[in-house]
Predict the structure.
Amino acid sequence: MSGFGRGKVILLGEHAVVYGVPALAAGLERGVTATATPAAETELACAPWGTSDGLDADTDLGRALRAVIEAHPDAPLPPVRVEADVALPAGAGLGCSAALGVAVLRALDELAGRAASDAEIAERSMIWERVFHGNPSGLDNTMAAHGGVACFRRGEPLERLDVRAPLRLVIGDSGESSSTRAMVEQVARQRERDAARFDKSLDAIGTLVSNARLALEAGDAHALGQLMDLNQHLLAAWMLSTTALEDMIGAARAAGAKGAKVTGSGGGGCMIALVESEEVGAKVVDAIEALGFAAFQTEAG
Ligand code: MEV
């Protein structure tokens, strides 16, 4: 019995989405596959990490597993072993923990003979995300359940977007792991220090997101890329960029990307670059690899 949860990239609007601004995101083909089988004791084993966490484990994985098992609609569940194959880097801004939570829930549901909609899985996986991220907007787990290209606003149903053509993206990984919880808290401290200034940035990001949505729907990669670049300036002003991310972003733009920015929580993790063709994508991948970072091309939508 197996279930899948997708990774995601945020095209525009990360962090601002925590405060109610819409964000644009795209599901990745890569994600987490989980398999559930009856067992003597409940545990979650994750490959390739080599971890194994039971219900009593004093770890985020143990706490998250306990939370979703206790809240399962068919609880109490008989003991179950869940094996997860994680094909995403952790702490890299690609929604790894949310993809894992969604995969675990789907595997548990399949074993219990339960058919849940994507929306139900998205809602039930919020409890998992809270264990990892404290005050998550719900974007990561919603995208992990639904995939596609979408506009997400906290507390509202996901709005799928019709994109003219699939988006071609290059994802560059700084190799620096970062904690979403810590980065969300860092941004919250900036808001406490100067609420008026912070709200101006939120308004600006909201405007960029609504224009980017129009560009996406019109298939205007040039405009979308420019809006991503502008969002990057505001993310950098919130101190979410790093030298490694800036280097990759600069190299991507110089190699022909339409736009490039941090994706996800920042402070490390990944950047994305929008490219118009596979050929340009290959040049961008080469430019990032030449700096010593890992990069790959993907299509979304
Ligand atoms: C993390 O992938 C996205 C953030 O906006 C946090 C959240 O939405 O919960 C940084």
The longest strand covers residues 23-38. The radius of gyration is 19 Å. The mean pLDDT is 96. Residues 195-218 form the longest helix (24 residues).
